Amino acid sequence: MTEDDLQTHALRFVADPTPPHREAVVLAALPLVRSLVGKLTLPNHPLASWEDLEGAGLLGLMQALDSYDPDRGAQFSTHAYRRVQGALVDYLRSIDVLSRDKRQLMAEAQRALGTLAQMLGDEPMDEDVADYLGISLADYHSLLSEAQHRFTLSMDQPIHEDESQRVVDTLSLEDARDGFDAVEVRSELAALEKILPTLPERERTILALYYIEDLTLREVGEILGVSDARISQILGKTLLKLRNLLTATQPPGTMRSAA
Predict the structure, then answer these.
(1) Which helix (H) or strand (E) holds 158?
(2) What is d(CA 101, CA 78) in angstroms, rounded to the nearest whole number?
(3) 166 pairs with which residues across the strands?
(4) What span, in angstroms and rounded, lies between the C-alpha atoms of 238 and 204?
């Protein structure tokens, strides 16, 4: 099913909102919902199965369909993308029960990455960071996946009240700064432009595939020959590093919270 097919079904529903036409839109848009669900890391929570996430995404799709106005000029796929993504983020935030101790450990891991990089003069291995934190390698990898999950929620926050642009959009839109009034946003973008080229090529590739090419964790893993869990860990580590580097370049009090 192509984007044109989805648009055709959406317009047909707007003109004649019957159950069969609604079902046709849902079937056409299901790959979009599943693609967005696939970009998430499944949190360790009894209410967070893949079926739960897909259900939340479908609810967002229904809301998108009921609120779609083609006269505004937007394709239904664009409208649905934002609504489905917002529904998924809202659902995950509603069940986010990360403990205070885990939040503190995540902050310590972020600092440890910077400290060890200075001490070693090179990128620390995962084992080095785990030893520094006094936790097992498995626990550190779990922490990185949780970090990736939390950064996904943070980077999907809208910049403006109309929710027309997310924080993550600033990573992929060269002219994104033109629409920003906030000095701190422009400052962070300028810093990102300098920081991103300093990352290892593999990390830059994963960021590009995940955030710009909009691939799922599994799709990125298939390209690079590793598991989707490992991609989540690498993303978590990379985003912690970026927060470290951005913090170092910003005046005190100007960084937005990632948690």
Answers:
(1) none
(2) 39
(3) 158
(4) 9
Whole-number pLDDT of residue 48: 74
Is the separation of the CB atoms in 76 and 10 below 8 Å? yes
Alpha-carbon distance of 79 to 136, in angstroms, equals 43
Low-confidence ranges of the chain (pLDDT < 70): 1, 43-47, 96-99, 152-192, 248-259
Measured in degrees and rounded to the nearest 5, phi and psi for residue 21 equal -70, -35
> Could you report the per-residue pLDDT of 155-178, keeping only the tens digit for each?
544 434 444 444 444 344 333 333
Between CA 237 and CA 113 the distance in angstroms is 8
Is the CA virtual torsion 190, 257, 145, 51 positive or negative? negative
Q: What is the DSSP secondary structure assignment for residue 202, as one 8-state letter? A: H
**Residue with the two structure tokens 């990736």:** 148
- What token pair was written down for 173? 């839109």
> What span, in angstroms and rounded, lies between the C-alpha atoms of 204 and 226?
16
Q: E strands within 65-168?
A: none
158 DSSP β-pair partners: 166
Q: Please, what is the Cα angle at 169 between 187 and 243, to 5 degrees?
A: 50
CA distances from 20 to 5, 15, 23, 36, 102 (A): 15, 13, 5, 25, 47
CA distances from 88 to 27, 55, 142, 241, 250 (A): 18, 9, 21, 25, 31
For position 183, what pLDDT does the model report? Answer: 39
Query: Alpha-carbon distance 130 to 107, whole Å?
Result: 14
Domains, the chain, ranges and CATH?
3-94 (1.10.1740.10), 100-249 (1.20.140)
